[in-house]
Design a protein that fits this description.
The complex is a heterodimer of chains A (333) and B (256). By secondary structure, chain A is an alpha/beta fold. Chain A folds into 2 domains: 9-229, Rossmann fold (3-Layer(aba) Sandwich); 234-301, Alpha-Beta Plaits. In chain A, 38% of the residues lie in helices and 24% in strands. Chain A has helices at residues 48-55, 77-83, 99-109, 114-127, 143-155, 173-190, 201-207, 225-232, 247-254, 280-289, 304-312, 319-332; strands at residues 9-17, 23-32, 37-41, 63-68, 71-72, 84-87, 161-165, 193-198, 210-215, 218-223, 236-241, 258-260, 269-273, 294-300. Chain A has a 6-stranded mixed beta sheet with strand order 6-7-8-3-9-10, with helices on both faces. Chain A is elongated and about 75 Å long. In chain A, 44% of the residues are buried. Chain B has one domain. Helix content of chain B is 78%, strand content 0%. Classes of the chains: A alpha/beta (333), B mainly alpha (256). Chain A binds chain B through residues 53, 56-60, 78-79, 81-82, 86, 88, 90, 92-94, 96-97, 101, 104-106, 108-111, 153, and chain B through 2-3, 6-7, 9-11, 13-14, 17-18, 21-22, 89-91, 93-101, 104, 253-254, 256.
């Protein structure tokens, strides 16, 4: 029996080196509270999966310590594995087994047998919407169905902590939304702590209570999405004049509230506000006072990509590809 | 212990289920030893007339013992192929994550290998009796004969598990298979040891499979004379390859 301990995750100075390879994880410190959804955000090759592998006891750390559910990942691996569920990046399923048979295997390995196993399997199949496909071989499943089955398998033994490694990569928007809802429900209703890696900004923003941003094996920022955005970025106001000849006048008004910025449409004028809580009403009054007609006016909140940009000097989207390209070029030399 | 049992039960169930429900796994396992048995017994039966061939029960029983041990060893080899496949497909990660005690994974594969061998040998035995194989030994002798195969199957699984856990790719197949194949066929397969000559005789004399084969043939004819040596070799191999397999598992854990 497990002794009840906190459903938290702690890591101090966690390092993983690979032979003939770069240092994949370089001394990360993190803390995830019980019942929290922690989003681990970063581009491809940043060290997200390696971190998950260490925390789930699949890979021993080269240095540093980590505890999951109160158990040391190196010294108390069996206890960690009993407390956690994990759905890894590649949903490794057996093409010769059906969905229900996968659940049977997983349940048996966790000591759940007989009627309890059948009941739990049916419950999970219903929850992930795979009841009809349950007795079909996996080779006929779509990517989304495999992901949902993977999630069901991770939940068979009612884990207290759930690791999801890029769970929505390659999924269509419907499957993605359904998975988000289920993860949110697990945390809120069942009190499961969720450690979720993703390279999707929206996913981290929508799902995570707190976010850790990792790049080149280092955590470059940690906090709630709101905190991170407030620390780093300011809101942007975009205005589209009704008469394009008034574009200069609009720019002159907006520049009173912040610094000009680009990245919007050719008809737009945009400024990044000086204060994070820019008052849109004040801007409207100023435009009205100058008798400038506006066809569209909107305020853009800062995104996690702005945070990533501020911390690393690169945009998150495409950062992984850039690194892969650099590695290929270096290898070619 | 309960955790090891649960994990072993799950792994063994999966392997056995796939084996019995997929002809592509079941048929080669059955046909391979049956082919050897029928080919050797049918094509080489006149060997019993060679001067110096002193096995009293005829060539069918003589070859049956070889096929019994060969199928046992190869059930372990095929199990090793499954382990290597699971590493390459990533499925082993699922097992490693779900297993509180990972020794149960190796045990589960070993049990599945035994189930595979028992299935094969039941069919081969049936075919041997249909071919009017003579038996000289009693119930205890036959029990000991099948125990030889039982233990050799576990040895085969532990050997191949150790290789598969170290290489973690399907490229492990020849590394698993070749040593077993060489050991089996450099034993006195077709004629008794006394009829082998030259370097073949020298190799067969030091081959650990030779005493197993001679003891098996002694048991089926009711005159075993190498019982201690044969079972001693098997238990030594079991101990050695159990360490080999567990260390392979540790190495796989360290590699991730």
């Amino acid at each position: 029996m497990l002794t009840p301990r906190e459903n938290s995750i702690e890591a101090h100075g966690l390092v993983r080196d690979f032979k003939k390879g770069p240092r994949a994880v370089d001394g990360i410190d993190l803390h995830v509270d019980p019942g929290e959804i922690f989003g681990f955000l970063g581009p491809n090759g940043a060290g997200k999966s390696t971190t998950v592998h260490m925390l789930t006891t699949l890979l021993p750390p080269t240095a540093g310590t980590a505890t999951v559910a109160g158990y040391d990942v190196v010294e108390e691996g069996p206890q960690v594995r009993k407390a956690i569920g994990a759905a890894l990046q590649e949903a490794a399923l057996d093409p010769y087994l059906t969905g229900r048979e996968h659940l049977r295997l997983q349940a048996t390995m966790h000591g759940i047998t007989g009627e309890e196993r059948k009941r739990r399997s049916n419950e999970l199949l219903t929850r992930v919407g795979l009841t009809e496909a349950a007795d079909r071989k996996i080779r006929g499943y779509s990517g989304g169905m495999k992901r949902r089955l993977d999630l069901a398998l991770a939940l068979v033994h009612r884990p207290r902590i759930l690791f999801l490694d890029e769970p929505t990569t390659g999924l269509d928007i419907q499957s993605r939304t359904a998975l988000w809802q289920e993860v949110g429900r697990l945390a809120k209703e069942d009190g499961v702590t969720v450690f979720l890696t993703t390279q999707y900004l929206e996913e981290a923003d929508v799902l995570a209570d707190r976010v850790g941003i990792i790049d080149h094996g280092h955590i470059v920022a940690q906090g709630t999405p709101e905190q991170l955005k407030a620390e780093i970025s300011r809101s942007t106001v975009e205005a589209v004049p009704a008469d394009l000849e008034q574009k200069g006048a609009v720019a002159a008004v907006l520049e009173r509230f912040g610094t000009p910025t680009t990245g919007f449409g050719p008809e737009s004028v945009a400024v990044q506000l000086a204060a994070s809580d820019g008052d849109l009403a004040q801007i409207v009054r100023a435009l009205d006072a100058e008798k400038v007609r506006i066809s569209n006016l909107q305020i853009h909140e800062p995104t996690l990509d702005d945070v990533f940009l501020a911390k690393t000097g690169r945009h998150l989207e495409g950062a992984g590809e850039e690194e892969e390209q650099e590695e290929e070029e270096a290898a070619a030399l | 212990m309960r955790e090891i049992y649960n994990v072993a039960k799950g792994v063994a169930w999966r392997q056995a289920h796939i084996f019995f429900t997929n002809p592509s796994f079941l048929l080669p396992s059955l046909l391979f030893p049956l082919f050897f048995f029928t080919a050797f017994v049918g094509g080489l039966s006149r060997i019993r007339d060679v001067p110096g061939f002193d096995f009293p029960l005829g060539y069918t029983a003589f070859q049956f013992v070889f096929v019994l041990l060969q199928s046992a060893a190869f059930s372990g080899v095929f199990t090793g192929f499954g382990i290597a496949r699971d590493w390459e497909s990533g499925f082993m990660r699922r097992l490693m994550l779900a297993a509180p005690n990972r020794v149960g994974i190796v045990l589960g594969y070993a049990i599945a290998g035994l189930v595979r061998w028992i299935t094969v040998i039941v069919v081969v035995t049936g075919v041997a009796f249909a071919a009017q194989m003579k038996i000289g030994g009693g119930g205890v002798d036959l029990f000991a004969l099948y125990t030889l195969g039982f233990l050799l199957s576990i040895v085969g699984t532990l050997w191949s598990a150790g290789v598969a856990m170290r290489l973690r790719t399907q490229q492990a197949f020849p590394v698993i298979q070749m040593p077993v194949f060489i050991l089996l066929f450099f034993a006195p397969v077709y004629v008794p040891l006394g009829l082998l000559q030259g370097w073949l005789h020298g190799v067969a004399r030091v081959n650990p499979i030779t005493p197993l084969l001679e003891e098996g043939r002694g048991l089926i004819s009711g005159s075993p004379d190498k019982t201690l040596l044969a079972f001693g070799i098997l238990f030594a191999l079991l101990g050695g390859f159990a360490i080999w397999a567990i260390r392979g598992l540790w190495r796989a854990e360290a590699a991730g």
